[in-house]
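JOB MANIFEST
job_type = single_chain_structure
chain_count = 1
residues = 397
[input]
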Amino acid sequence: MSAFTIASFNVKNLIGPDQEYYRFQSYTPEEYAWKAAWLADQVLTLDADVVGFQEIFEESALRDVIAMADAEGAEANAQNVPDASKRYRRKAIFRRLAYTGYGDAALAFAPNVNDGAPGQRRPGVAILARHGFAEPPEIIQELEAPLTIPFSALGGAEDGGGFTLKRLSRPILKARVRAGAHVVTVFNCHLKSKLGEYPRPEGADFAPEADLTRYDPVGRAAGALRAALRRMAEAWVLRREIVTELGKGRPVIALGDFNDGEHAVSSEIISGEVPFKNYAWMLRHDAEHGGDRYSEAENEAITEAIEAVRLHSAEHLFVQKSARDMVFTTAFGGVYESIDQIYLSRHFLPRSAHSIGQMDYFSVLNDHLTDGAHPEAPYNKLASDHGQIMAHLTLGD
């Protein structure tokens, strides 16, 4: 048996100093130093075998953070972990205190093809793997063929319309990582946010909906609709990749900033359907009379087909095992929710015939989060506005 940990970490706009990433937004050298030190401390605390990072503008800045974490970890080990001369060095507590580090780790960075000039930058994602990659990582963002989603015609209309997606707002990074005696396919994503999407008319300096002095509630609602359509389409692209990997019999972990909760449609697209209790109760798709139901054998086959490609929320599995009521990774406007997720294929369910291990614990680092709605808890713009989540797994040999 071997322990394996995997984490998701939205760092919130990691870029070097004196660089305008969004309009009028940049870090002074002092602000960058504080941010990098804070991020390094979080990486050190996680000390995960695999970390999926989101909102990375520069690979070099992320490497600086990792190197800083390793330096701090080595110093902490020298102070806290007894050397071979101490007879009590084998105490279990010292295994928990020791920092493993990333001296031999592999880092894959996926830049964003939508990245632009200063003030119009777009972040990418990265995966840090302590034990390296079994295959070269892949970046999924530009679609080989546009994804066209036709809508059903209603009321006899000849054309129900449709939606076309040619590229993702941010890349999906796929990596085959080494996990003990196994190789696991990890997908790291950052789906489109709920921030409204407003097309700018040709020749205009900004979209009309952006002018809050002429507030347009219907136009802004349409912006939220566009964002939701894009997010769900991106979720489907990820789902297609997940199903392909599962079809090869490979264990899968999908993680990242989903920008939606576990029960949102986009998240359910990624995780897949939950099987119905008993399909033998259900009217067949090709029924010829009211009692034409699926057979017991078909019920079992349908259930297995759905379970084989279904993912399971690590947070939900943890809540089932514990007495904890709530986990949250964001806080704003009085709403505390989890939009950062780690999803596991059935290979990590202990009672599955396909199991290679199980999740023992799920942790979240969210003490730094403050709700910007409360004046007594001002938001710190340099720390991440997301909690960091980590699944603790035990894998078989």
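[summary]
Residues 278-303 form one domain.
The CA atoms of residues 294 and 384 lie 50 Å apart.
exit_status = 0
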